[in-house]
UniProtKB/TrEMBL annotation:
Pfam families: Cation_efflux. InterPro entries: Cation_efflux_TM, Cation_efflux_TMD_sf, CDF/SLC30A. It is a multi-pass membrane protein. One of its GO terms (molecular function) is zinc ion transmembrane transporter activity. This is Cation diffusion facilitator family transporter. It comes from Sphingobium subterraneum. PANTHER family: CATION EFFLUX PROTEIN/ ZINC TRANSPORTER, RE54080P-RELATED. It is found in: Membrane. Residues 9-187 form the Cation efflux protein transmembrane domain. Keywords: Ion transport, Membrane, Transmembrane, Transmembrane helix, Transport, Zinc, Zinc transport. The chain crosses the membrane at residues 46-64, 71-90, 102-119, 139-156. The keyword Transmembrane helix applies.
Amino acid sequence: MRTRWRRVLWAALIVNAAMFFVEMVAGATADSRALQADALDFLADAANYAVSLAVVGAALSWRARAALLKSLFMLGFAAWVFGSAILAFVNGTAPDPTTMGAVGALALAANVGVALLLYRYRTGDANMRSVWICSRNDAIGNVAVMLAAVGVFGTGNAWPDLIVASVMAALALTGSAQVLRQALGELRLVAE
């Protein structure tokens, strides 16, 4: 199982790293906070997969500590997105909905592919669960980006983009709390 898990993690890491660059460039070009938030989420996920690769086969205590680190990454991502949305509200203009929609669809395809690879590992330890939660949240976020693109196109203003960026931050907060609870529980179990 470790060999299969490693291969899946490597595939997920490569897809997420590539999509970080694609979405960051597209988000800057389109002036979309939702795309930039999703790009940072791809970067955080790539880092999470790298951490997971580092602890494959390690003791439960190390895997739980890695999950704690991941929950902190997710929390930091949420804080950045909320701050970025507030700044965009104060200073921003309406993003380009065509770019948002096209890149959102590409990101959705990438995340659904990764989620399908990870689905069989969704009920493992906190480390495995954190990887699944990130992938699930990403697919939800991509659908939301595409809906924001439709909203921006229909209204001509940035509100749909900012709302979706905030929803993505809220998903990261929720996921962070779930992973944190399970990791702390596993650390308590190991200490007994």
